[in-house]
Amino acid sequence: MAGDVVHYIQDLSVILATAAITSMLSQRLNQPPVLGYVLAGVLIGPYVPGIEVGRDSGLLTRDLSEFGVIMLMFSIGLEFNLRKIARIGPAAGLTALFEVALMMTLGFGCARLFGWDRFQALFVAACISSSSTMIAAKAFEEHRQRADFVDLAFAILVFDDMLTILVFALLTAVAGGSGVSAGDFAWSVGQLIAFLLALLALGLLVIPRFIRRAAAHERPETLLIASVAVCFIMTSLAAAAGYSIALGAFMAGMLVSESGEGHKLEPHVLPLRNIFGAVFFVAVGMQSDPLEIATQWPLVLALTAVVVVGKIVGVSTGAFLTGNGLGNAVRAGLGCAQNGEFSFIIAAFAVASGILDKSIFPVVVGVSLLTQISTPLLVRRSERMADALQRWLPGRLQTFVDFYESWIEQLRTAPRAVTVWSRVRRSVILLVVDAALLIASAAGSRLIHWDVVKFFADRFHLPPSLVDVVWVALSLVVVGLFFLGVLRHLRAVARTLARIVVPAHVDDGPDLGAAPRRALTVALEVALSLAVSGPLVAIAQPFVPLSTILFVLGLIAVVLLYDGWRSLANLQGHVRAGTELIVAMLAKQSHEGSDEHRQLPGVRDLLPGFPDLAPLRLDPGDFAVGRTLADLQLRQRSGATVMAIRRRSTPDTSPAPHAPLDEGDVLALAGTPEAIARAREILERG
Questions:
Q1: Collapsing DSSP states into helix, strand and coil, what is residue 394?
Q2: What keywords tag this UniProt record (predicted)?
Q3: Exposure class string for 65-97: b at 16+ Cβ within 10 A, else e
Q4: Residue 55 has what DSSP assignment?
């Protein structure tokens, strides 16, 4: 026994020493330390000739790595509490929901193309659905990123972690049954929800009080021991209920955080997390055969492309549509484009449960390594890539981008938010009901499909193929009716929200806000479609053929794109006419000798749908004098747009990006109040 202990200690010393060396090397190369830990495991693993570390030591490669999972998820849970989740707001949650659903769909499709069955493909998709807060934080820190998009990226990553944990818990619950039949799926969902609610209710009654009493003794070790004890108890309960230990550890961290003592505990948990986390990632590397990674390079590259492209598109699209601006949205997407550490946990569970072959593990490691290398490169170039995208956008889209953020800001700050909810409440409730009935009808049809075919074929002596066709047709009709209901209520919500921002004209005169209201309606339809279709597709995949889902989504996308392009053309004409009116108003102000250029009276009534407008006169000594709008990059740096310019030396003119600005020029700035304030500072001080 003593010899075994010495053997374990020797192996552990080699593991930690190698991890320290490779971590230092990876950081010297501006790469996250996680990359070094995984490489350390590969170097000392059993697949490298002559290496014996951990070959007979199940304690190191299995048990200690499990402690790494527990401490990692416990520390993530400490960053959450119910108040923080509510404070982060729905925008980041909707973005993460769309991104995770998109990654599950893309991963599922890619896995099916490579020959996995439906159940296996769900686990493969889950392996690539999560991002890494650790890797993203390290990339932001090394490149000294402190802009608004960093907070946005972290908020999205917080919800990404939560959704991934829920997906994994659901998959582990389904794995304990007989597969992904409709009955097992519905039963597993119900059990999971009941377990989480019971755990949360009982935990909120006991754990915060227990932790506060431990903290009252003002001894850090007492608080640490009490918190780790809670962590292990919750982990044991989750394991006993048949769920992942990661879920129990995360719930423990969140409940401990509810005590208000999480900030005291985090510095003491961090060393434990770092040590056991390093062992976990080393163990991941030790289970990875470098030759296997190289052998399966087509799959590794395919999944890497899905991760990078899918996460950039998913996060950028969701963040922009929730009103965070195109630049911040794109940069947040580039910062979230990596495969998270949770993928190793999901892959290890799938292999241990016999769901996936052990060859999947080196594939997941290969994808993680490639995305860990690419993330710092993407973050470093994120500003230039976002600026390039904004420059390359067609004129119609640039106009829409300039206005959309302001529209969402007006919707957020609409007075009496309860009135907004009361106006959309009925449509939202009907939307949720139709979506639930859609899933229930699809799942129910699949559940009783062959029983119905057998019953009618035997009872009425009909050909089974005929009964099959009729049943499928009837099922599609029912599902289609509920799907049309979802689309109808979704459009109703979008129209109602658009009317709040751009009210409809009630007089007999022309409706001046028709063009911007239509553009906003289509944009909100796209945003709501993405928010609704993502979860619907992810849930419906076990019951509806993927080809059918993709066909329907493609058809909807074509209709929305066509409708959107026409509405953008009308919006551009509206903006062109409005710009001419703004220039005329600026000219009138100058003609009347007004020196106070702080407001444009009546613009909101004359130009419905335009963002907030504020004039700014360039005085001698201002930074912008002698520089061009192209040099200042005002829109990229502030989010505000120069809608018109009144010059002393030339006739009325629209903004010319390469014409130098002169003192006395009056610029009409459009955007949110915060964007206009930033633009003023740039124009005056640089």
A1: coil
A2: Ion transport, Membrane, Potassium, Potassium transport, Transmembrane, Transmembrane helix, Transport
A3: bbbbbbbbbbbbbbbbbeeeeeebeebbbbbbb
A4: S
Q: How far is CA 182 from the centre of its chain?
A: 28
Element of type H or E holding 667: strand 666-670
b/e code 194-204 from CB counts within 10 Å (16+ = b): ebbeebeeebe
Residue 166, CA atoms < 13 Å, CB-side half-sphere: 19
CB 341 within 8 A of CB 281: yes
What is the distance between the alpha carbons of residues 513 and 526, in angstroms, rounded to a whole number? Answer: 20
> Residue 309's closest CA among 110, 139, 138?
110
d(CA 267, CA 259): 16
The CA-CA-CA angle for residues 321, 327, 329, to 5°, reads 40
Place of tokens 């129910």: 444
Q: Which residue has the tokens 């004359």?
A: 606
Tell me if 186 sits within 8 A of 371, measured CB to CB. Answer: no
pLDDT of residue 596: 45
Say if CB 590 and CB 646 are below 8 A apart. yes
Establish how many alpha carbons lie within 13 A of residue 257's alpha carbon, considering only the half-sphere containing its beta carbon.
22
Alpha-carbon Rg for the chain in angstroms: 29
Kindly report the number of other CB atoms within 10 A of residue 181's CB atom: 16
Assigned token pair, 115: 């020959």
- pLDDT below 50 — which residues of the chain? 1, 57, 178-180, 593-597
Query: Which tokens belong to 40?
Result: 């350390």
Angle of the 326-335 helix axis to the 148-175 helix axis, nearest 10: 50
* Cα→Cα distances 655→312, 458, 511, 646, Å: 32, 77, 27, 9
| 352 CB burial (10 A radius; 0-12, 13-18, 19+) | exposed
Can you spell out the DSSP letters for 582-608?
Answer: HHHHHHHHHHTT----S--TTHHHHST
What's the CA gap between 497 and 521, in Å, rounded? 8
Residue 641 and residue 623: Cα distance in Å, rounded?
17
Report the distance separating Cα 140 and Cα 613, nearest Å: 34
- Write out pLDDT tens, residues 369-393: 888 788 888 888 888 888 788 778 7
Task: Walk across the sheet containing 613-617 and list its strands.
Answer: 613-617, 666-670, 641-646
Q: Give the C-alpha separation, 619 to 675, whole Å.
A: 20
Residues 612/683, Cβ–Cβ less than 8 Å: no
Identify which of 681, 530, 534 has the alpha carbon closest to the alpha carbon of residue 616: 681
* Span 571-598, pLDDT tens digits: 877 777 777 677 666 666 655 544 444 5
Give the other-Cβ count within 10 Å of 281's Cβ. Answer: 28
Comparing CA positions, the residue from 360, 331, 329, 338 lying closest to residue 347 is 360
What is the rounded distance in angstroms from the CA atom of residue 170 to the CA atom of residue 148?
A: 34
**Is 219 in a helix, a strand, or coil?**
coil
Report residue 359: phi and psi, to 5°. -70, -15
Give SS3 for 608: coil
User: If DSSP states are collapsed to H, E and C, what string results for 183-245?
Assistant: HHHHHHHHHHHHHHHHHHHHHHHHHHHHHHHHHHCCCHHHHHHHHHHHHHHHHHHHHHCCCCH
- Return the pLDDT at 543: 63
